[in-house]
Amino acid sequence: MLTDTLISMVMQNPGLSSQLQKEVASFGLTFVDAHAPFGPALDLICPDPALRRTGALRRKLAFNIAADLGVDTIAVHVGNDNRVLDQSIERSMELISSALDDAIADAEKLNIVIAIENIWFRTNTPERLLELKAKFPSEFLGFCYDSGHANLMDKGRYYPDGAARAAWNAVGIAEPPWENQALEKMLPYIVNCHLHDNDGSTDQHRNIGHGNIDWKHIIGLLKTAPRLKNIQSEVIPLRTSTPIREVCEAFQKLETL
Question: Whose CA is closest to 33, among 75, 65, 5?
Fold first, then answer.
């Protein structure tokens, strides 16, 4: 996995790219997926003109770094509207669309697919992602399904102080439009996915089976995804005190579901 951190490191030290390639190859491995750097100044929703120009250049560079390392899918965050409270949802979607228009043009030249990710804000629900896909039918735009984020928009309904409810409350919506069909809606366009578990309250990035996600249901559907190229673990071992071996064993068990 070519993480956003690794991409940022290569941006600072271009020579690191060939070093990473050699080290990964020495273990008989290759990079198969990437995640673009993200944050308020880098996401597609960013309203500041100067930051948008810089963000576009950094995305283009991230795509080139990924392509040079043989990667053909890269997750991109459209952005979270709780960070731009003085901006209407319509304006946010306009900014996202404008940035995506340029990004897709860059991706097409490199034969890399942009995968926009579901999170738990108004701007990145399955419905909003589908709106963007309808506007940009290019094969170089797909979806990144995040199991943990989807669970927050489902099981989050049981937590009055949960992360999803807080995100929607911040933009003046008392009750989020809870969603238990995110994967089904996104399925035709999913090209990569981030798999991890939680209890629905916050984005905990726990190991598979250490939350309340129905993995048999999830894996059964993912096996039918027509465009799926890869899956990846987004379990965070340090945060959750999970041994790497246990993460590997959990993902091996997913193959049997």
Answer: 75
The two three-digit tokens of residue 153, written as one number: 């928009």
The reported pLDDT for the residue numbered 250 is: 98
Ramachandran region, residue 252 (left: φ > 0; alpha: ψ -120 to 50; beta: rest) = alpha
CATH of domain 4-254: 3.20.20.150
Domains of the chain, by residue range, sit at 4-254
- The residue behind tokens 């996600």 is 213
CB 79 within 8 A of CB 123: yes
Structure tokens at 51: 């930051």
Q: Can you tell me which residue has the tokens 């669309």?
A: 97
- What's the rounded Cα separation, in Å, for the pair 241 and 103? 37
Q: Which residues pair with 73 in a beta bridge?
A: 113
> Global pTM?
0.97
